[in-house]
Amino acid sequence: MASKIQILLIIAAFTLGYMIYPFMLVLISAWFGFFFIYKIKKQDKNLNRKENLVFNIVVFTYPFIEIFLKYFLLNTSLHCYDTLNRYEHFLFAFCLQILLLPVLKPTFIKLSFLESMILSLCLITFIGNLNEIMEFIIRIKLDLLTNAFQEKVYYSDTILDIITNTLGGLVSFFIIINLNKSSEN
pTM score, two decimals? Predict the structure, then answer.
């Protein structure tokens, strides 16, 4: 199952996440939930040594990076918010693709390079779009979009988030492909 260090990192992520931004518990629960499902189903055995190393580094560092970014997003000026938000979306898509690697790898092996890339980008874009829809619903429910200017600003933010998610997914896809090629040689 999980090592003692992994368990301590999970507890630390939950504690810090709750202290910084209570909604982070949802993200962290889902993130580590996927990790434990992979461990229970032994899907991480699909990965070679390098992929497994990258998978574990990403699984256990991303929540802390996200907590760090969320802290600064909540406590920073508006001009810095946009830059941090781009990093947040890029890293989310990048890390999500790595998190899904144990499930996607058997499919990638059966598909051509182009088919794998299209599948990967469609999946990451779909999940990113779900996130944007959820953000929009939350903003409507909290009455944060109270005038046309705020709606216009949010629209451009959404488009930039989708582009950034796509770039993060694309970069991680190429890293995954290179990890796979380097293990074959």
Answer: 0.81
Distances (CA, A) of 116 to 7, 55, 107, 174: 33, 18, 8, 11
Integer CA distances (angstroms), 180 to 19, 38, 40, 103, in order: 38, 19, 24, 15
Domain positions in the chain are: 4-184
Distance CA(185)–CA(103), nearest Å, equals: 23
Integer angstrom CA distances of residue 106 from 54, 125, 135, 136, 170? 17, 20, 32, 34, 18
Instruction: Express each pLDDT in 76-108 by its tens digit.
Output: 665 677 778 888 889 999 999 999 999 889 898
Q: Average model confidence (pLDDT) for the chain?
A: 82
